[in-house]
Amino acid sequence: MEKFILKYFTLIRTLTAILVGIIISVVLIYLISEMPAYSIKQFFIGPLLSKGRFANVIENASPMIFCGVAIAIAFQAKQFNIGAEGAFFLSAAVGTAFAISTNMPTVLHIIMVLVVAGATGAIWGFIPGFMKARWGASELVASLMMNYIAYFGGLYLINYHFRDKDAGYLVSYKLAETAWLPQFMPGTRLHLGIFLALIFAFLGYYFLYHTTSGYEIRTTGHNQKFAKFGGMNVIKVIILAQVLSGMIAGIGGATEIMGLHRRFNWQSLPGYGWDGVIVAIIGRNHPIFIIFAALFLSYLRVGGQILNLMADVPSELVLVIQSIIIILITAEAFLSTWKNKITIKEAERVEVGNESVAQ
Amino acid sequence: MENILQVKNITMVYPTGVIANKDVSMDVKRNSIHAIVGENGAGKSTLMNVIFGKIHPQDGDVFYKGEKVNFRNPNYAIKAGIGMVHQHLMLAPDLTVAENMILGIEPKKGKIFLDTVNALETTDAVSKKYGMDVPVNKKIKDLPIGVRQRVEILKALFRNAELLILDEPTSVLTPQETEVLFETLFKLKENGKTILFISHKLSEVKKLADSVTVMRDTRVITTKDAAELTEEAIAHLMVGRDINSGRIAEPENPGKVRLSVNNLSYIDYENVQILKDINFDVRAGEILGIAGVEGNGQSELVNILTGLMRPTDGAVSVDGKNIIGMTPRQIRELRISHIPEDRMENGVADIASLEENFIVDRYYKSEFSKKGRLNWKYIKDYSVDLIKRFNILTQSSKTPTGALSGGNIQKVVVARELSSDPELIIAAQPTRGVDIGSEELIHDLLKKARDEGKAIFLISADLDEIIKLSTRIIVIYDGHITKHFTDCRDIRGMDLGPYMLGVKKEEGASGKIHS
Fold it and tell me: Which of A163, B6, B84, B484 is disulfide-compatible with B165, CB 3.0–4.6 A?
């Protein structure tokens, strides 16, 4: 038992954090709702009650997975590049512009848009990476500031050059059908993007844990001096991690446009980059765990929307749960006393075992 | 004589699951000098921390002056009259001696302002009382380590310590400074104090102690009068077997010059000259040792030799090839390996597995990866083999390196650096903080490498290690070489000391081979 707990301690800790978050949200619903039982049911079971809602969960998880994996690759190199938001937005805008301005057969068109968006994101990741490696500029500050540039730059591109003047609101022209990612389940908006997200999560996992470049990124993140000592070119590694991070976020942005909206219709930052940070933290920067973390967060979000719609509790409740979980997961001391006790118990058991063997 | 301190049946398990003390009991007589000896990891420091109230054991009791005590934290121990001088001194470097002395118990003027005059006077008084001279107005950072230590001892005495605990006090001192410390300790004993000191240098124990407690593998083996024990007997009790501490055999005949360092200088970004005109050669099949108090330019020298830093001036060549300006990887490709002085900072990534630590300099080679894809199966087998060959105690090759003991982490580093088939080994503090068993193993490995014709450059703060292993010795002080000993067969620490302190120097000394 002790061994099991120690082995899966991180997982148990994450699940406990989630549980605590949920219990507190239940208490909150009881405090503010006139019909708590109904609200709770809507919140937790609601997302499962119809095909449409469940599809919403999946469809929302897709950009979160993209951004989560993007953030995780930078975080694994200990680069706090939080520019996924900007890369996602700007690449979506550039991808849209490219899709509208070109004519190609369908599969090629989709691939080319993804390539252009990925390249945009890669450049966006390169800039803070280079500034960090070359001048020691904090990638956190640089990427954060660049999010604004991406936002206004993207809006400028769409609103001044690709705006559909016949639409009653600020959106781009509709993409040609050749650049549509197919939606595959009638009655929902589920599109191929989720599979792309899963593919990139698996690629991200494989890259980080099974390739030399991934090993370089993780080693640099573990101990940069050690990486240098071993002969790695840490400057190259730091830049590579951020370039890949931006690229994946960028591909995520274009996927969202081609699969879901079919035209650029954001007038404010959609926030997926931040969701990426959240799921990367919950998923401990591991791309496979990030898939589950994204599905979970998306589930909460959809539950929150239902709550807002069907019951008398505002959807901001989700933010409370989300924050509690993040705080507990990032708080080093959470459950550590418990872990210490178990470790000691286990150590004593092993010791006694050894002695009896020796005698 | 009555006992000032008794510990009974102490058992201490750390949160990490490491058992550090197992059923430990010991009596310390009032007004005596009591030594605790044992290898690293034997549990000495843990026991001291238990006595000092820093950590709390799962089991057992501490009696001080006949009363059972349970200090909640060190402040309570200090109030009761126990003082501790740590191995790594706990002084504020930017404050003066007097300011450090009164830290936490400042004399006040009008309840708010620091009474500086009073502080100076009391410091002076204490230092006079015990005959321990200190420059009261100087900043700690400007003082040599021996004086800093004296300040720390005075600090404890100022707080009315009757029992003084010293954790490996001599490990940072030169032989001369050690002498001074011993005189101080004898004086304190005359003044009625009790001294409890940890050491693993047996000659010191014999010289200093009235009684000796030997610890091995978390337990107390015995407590005896020092007069009853010989050095060999203590060593035997500590390790549980005989150890070989003599100088290793001389090499057959060293070959050609492998590493050649010429007129090397380094000036840091604050315009301080760290290295001045350093010259030396290291030949195949010999060990060149560099002795010196730490912080006299050794770290910078190593960093330059391994490509982590660039010199301001001078040339370094390996087999005739200039290596200045090469990256660490290019230098490693010349079959040069590097055991770094600070294993946790440079030598390992502690949260990464042993496997990931073993391959840091070779993961890109064809055995370990093909077309950028790591061959984890091979890496695992390779790691398991290294773990076996270098006798590393670990649960598996996937264990995070930081979970191992210090000695075993060092073995991980040594295993990696010696298994790359190097021609030149730069070994900085190769046995720092490792137990005697591992130290012997590492020394044997270095000797074996030497006998196979490898060139070895040894940097160590441990004079015994330098004297035991080196074929030739150079001494560094304040960034330049003060002496070159070409024949080290009968050399003693006392011969090196004056050159290490810069008291004596030979003009234009260099470690060059004259042919």
Answer: B84
